[in-house]
Amino acid sequence: MSEKLLRPREVCERLGVSYSTLRRWIEAGYIKAIRTVGGKHRVPESEVRRILESRAKETRAIAYARVSSSDQREDLERQVRYLLEYCASKGYRVVETITDVGSGLKTDRRGSKKLFDLVVSKQVEVVVITYGDRLTRFGFEYLEYFFNQHG
Questions:
Q1: Which of 3, 21, 89, 104 is the most buried (most CB within 10 A)?
Q2: Which of the four CATH numbers 2.60.40.420, 1.10.260.40, 3.10.20.580, 1.10.1660.10 does domain 5-56 have?
Q3: What is the value of pTM for the model shown?
């Protein structure tokens, strides 16, 4: 008995990706597809299972967002939405979303301390931020080096 072949729409629904993403994956060889006599793509069900299983071993990530004052709550929410969308597009599993309201110059922000604790304890592999200045105003390169050394 031959393996079930799925239409692109079914594959997109199961994987939670757009058709254009699926098409790029097929062209890049990330997912194997068969072309029908009519030129349409069909994806073996085993390929969909393979991708879903690889997602189970996803990279654990922290999404970190910060604004300087409570007047910027909308910007904080926008940052969080953007970070979560980005993580989803990369296949990261967000284990925690950390937010801070306070100056980038302050070193005693509760969220940033929690971030360091999680990184040092190897509970995450990736820290995702919108811009370096969300984490610190100066010395971002040192923090980047620190995070790279711990995960």
A1: 104
A2: 1.10.1660.10
A3: 0.59
